[in-house]
């Protein structure tokens, strides 16, 4: 999941964790599922004690018939998701022979015009508490990334739904409810503003009697607390081995261990060695706390991306906006592309992309030029992910044009390239191509048809200042051969191609033609 998707999911989970009314919560889940994946319809079914699923809420449906539909065990796409505990999608639901169809359910799907459906489990402690589904009224293939995003939302929604039920149940015991709410608020602050492992275990140890520990994915204890104070502590067992097969809460007589994980990553474990057996409500609080630790760990992992990865992702358009943690990049930066390794030591944000060094620098052009880095392209200053990527394209093109022009060792921005800057964009290359064809058309056609190289002869001749002897020497041909070729060029281009403004146009067209070929 990219940083943008993680942040959006992160903000959504914070909102869900603050909703304690079950009906409002599940409606919030389907509303955001529809928006996140850009689908026509989203709906959520919760599991009943008999194994059936009841569609509780919808968003985007054409009428009320979809809400309240009862899906018997193992029927339809939702039944397959509930049975396997894995995401399932059907490109054309009504025609999918792999699914067990029910007439009433199919009639509702037909009335709604549902075609492609993706369903993911609301999985909690190894059980499926419900199914979150999104649907399109046209055939569509959901990508693995989209399925992963919906699965993550479903995982967090399952915990949020369970939390809502828990808060409702705890409302009957005021004292415990107040302490749970305080913990909830504290964890919300940690999730919102970031924090360390001790920011979770200390308040949790005030509520749960016993030793509370947080370990990383390598089973190294990050923090331990008892009765609201940090202490030394050791894990009971090896959670990483315990959760290798199944990431679900593990309860024994002497220890409760909860995985700290997202849908796609394992960050470690939250463990309590209790003074007395924990109540079910206490286990639910542990799972809520583990979710907070997972959120913080997810953000930390994303924000620990190196500057090199960040630069590469920006300039290659792998991210659509500058991440929140890279606030400095919201100010204008020059994009510098060079093959000189000294650039890495001169810039704080650099990376290697396609064999070239790329740097984002706050310095002005004069400073960058003073670095004398050899063949270097620069563009900008630019602000924002899209503008930085466009500037990178221009800087790379500047390097290629400099090399094609034989100006290796120079530094150039698009403004330094004169008429050759048109070759930096597709529209400019098209315009240059029109000029080349209009100016050199008969000559280009002759070389193409006859296999000759009169184009090269004309360029060398004009570059030599129309001096025949130096031109013949560079072409390694006899002067008489050069005269014959020049006569043939005159026959093709007409009299006067060697003189005045006409010679300038021909020479420019010849160079543009060669550069376009080199840049192709």
UniProtKB/TrEMBL annotation:
It comes from the Bacteria. Residues 21-171 form the GAF domain. Coiled coil: none annotated. This is PucR C-terminal helix-turn-helix domain-containing protein.
């Amino acid at each position: 999941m990219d940083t943008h998707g993680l942040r959006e999911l992160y903000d959504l989970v914070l909102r869900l964790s603050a909703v304690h009314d079950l009906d409002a919560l599940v409606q919030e889940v389907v509303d955001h599922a529809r928006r996140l994946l850009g689908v026509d319809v989203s709906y959520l079914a919760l599991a009943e004690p008999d194994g059936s699923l009841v569609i509780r809420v919808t968003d985007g449906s054409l009428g009320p018939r979809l809400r309240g539909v009862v899906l018997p065990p193992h029927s339809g796409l939702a039944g397959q998701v509930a049975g396997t505990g894995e995401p399932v999608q059907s490109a054309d639901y009504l025609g999918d022979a792999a699914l067990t169809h029910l007439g009433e359910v199919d009639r509702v799907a037909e009335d709604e015009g549902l075609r492609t459906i993706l369903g993911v489990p609301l999985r909690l402690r190894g059980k499926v508490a419900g199914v979150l589904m999104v649907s399109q009224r046209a055939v569509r293939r959901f990508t693995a990334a989209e399925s992963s995003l919906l699965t993550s939302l479903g995982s967090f929604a399952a915990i949020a739904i369970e939390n809502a039920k828990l808060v409702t149940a705890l409302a009957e015991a005021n004292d415990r409810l107040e302490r749970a709410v305080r913990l909830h608020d504290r964890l919300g602050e940690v999730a919102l503003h970031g924090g360390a492992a001790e920011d979770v275990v200390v308040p949790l140890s005030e509520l749960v009697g016993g030793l509370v520990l947080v370990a990383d994915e390598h089973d190294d204890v990050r923090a331990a607390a008892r009765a609201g104070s940090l202490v030394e502590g050791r894990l009971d067992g090896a959670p990483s081995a315990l959760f290798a097969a199944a990431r679900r809460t593990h309860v024994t007589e002497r220890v409760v261990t909860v995985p700290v994980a997202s849908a796609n990553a394992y960050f470690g474990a939250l463990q309590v060695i209790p003074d007395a057996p924990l109540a079910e409500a206490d286990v639910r609080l542990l799972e809520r706390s583990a979710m907070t630790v997972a959120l913080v760990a997810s953000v930390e992992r994303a924000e620990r991306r190196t500057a090199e990865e960040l630069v590469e992702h920006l300039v290659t358009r792998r991210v659509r906006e500058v991440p929140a943690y890279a606030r400095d990049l919201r100010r204008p930066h020059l994009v510098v592309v060079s093959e000189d390794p000294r650039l890495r030591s001169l810039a704080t944000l650099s990376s290697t992309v396609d064999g070239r060094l790329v740097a984002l620098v706050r310095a002005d052009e004069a400073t960058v030029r003073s670095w004398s880095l050899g063949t270097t392209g620069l563009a900008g200053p630019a602000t924002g992910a899209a503008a930085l990527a466009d500037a990178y394209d221009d800087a790379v093109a500047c390097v290629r044009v400099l090399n094609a022009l034989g100006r290796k060792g120079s530094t150039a921005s698009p403004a330094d390239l004169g008429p050759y800057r048109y070759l930096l964009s597709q529209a400019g290359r098209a315009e240059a191509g029109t000029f080349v064809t209009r100016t050199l058309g008969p000559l280009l056609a002759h070389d193409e048809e006859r296999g000759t190289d009169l184009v090269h002869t004309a360029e060398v001749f004009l570059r030599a200042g129309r001096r025949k002897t130096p031109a013949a020497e560079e072409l390694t041909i006899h002067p008489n051969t050069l005269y014959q070729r020049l006569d043939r060029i005159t026959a093709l281009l007409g009299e006067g191609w060697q003189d005045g403004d006409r010679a300038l146009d021909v020479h420019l067209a010849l160079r543009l033609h060669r550069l376009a070929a080199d840049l192709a």
